[in-house]
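Archive maintenance. Older records in this collection stored only the sequence; we are now back-filling the structure field for every entry so that each record is complete. The fields below show one back-filled record exactly as it appears after the update. Entries are processed alphabetically, and Orotidine 5'-phosphate decarboxylase is next in the queue.

ARCHIVE ENTRY
Title: Orotidine 5'-phosphate decarboxylase
Organism field: Microvirga flocculans
Length field: 242
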Amino acid sequence: MSLPTKPVAAGDIRDKLIIGLDVPSVEEARSLVERIGDAGTFYKIGYQLAYAGGFAFARELIDQGKKVFLDLKLHDIGNTVEEGVRSVARLGVTFLTVHAYPQTMRAAVAGSAGTDLKILAVTVLTSYDDDDLVEAGYAPVPAAELVARRARQAREIGIDGIVCAATEAQAVRAVVGPDRLIVTPGIRPAGADAGDQKRIVTPAEGIRLGADHLVVARPIVKAPDPRAAAEAIVREIAQAAG
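Back-filled structure field:
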């Protein structure tokens, strides 16, 4: 079944909301996109859907005028990352994530050269807090300090944007400047369940803190009316941005 087509206007406020298609099958993703309709213009495909036919579905969305954020968080030896990014660029997606390790970021920049693909570097996952970093061997580096360090490296390498918690967006903006994107997951409307996220804010707070795009999955995907949930978040974004 084809998806409804409606061109996305340049600078459309709806583009600031990236809806995470965190579902196990293309059939469920397609149904969800149809239910959301023109309330959603930008979709994220992560591991769960990507490895269940999501790469082909990304092309389907792009053909229907949607934008796609492929959230693969690549991290491997330089040549593997570079060639992988080069293949992703041919899909026509808008964003691709890599982990913010210098060698990985340099390889991703090389792989995306000459294409429209924008590389986003993941600094510290929003499910991590300082205790998690200690457990991972980063002691005694607080999450905010590690985020700033990786953001600085990303800027120097030429990465297009940063993925970080909205709580760190202002500090990241001070590091990367006005010309790079800041994309923030861990967004929860007021009253929503935090789930496994530990550094969360509301959509309005995310925009006021300087995020360019907000990634929202469960509060929309699990809502009784996903379209209404998306529309409510877009209204909140518009009010905060105005």
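Update note: Residues 13-241 form a domain with the TIM Barrel fold (CATH 3.20.20.70). The two ends are 37 Å apart (CA to CA).
Entry marked complete.
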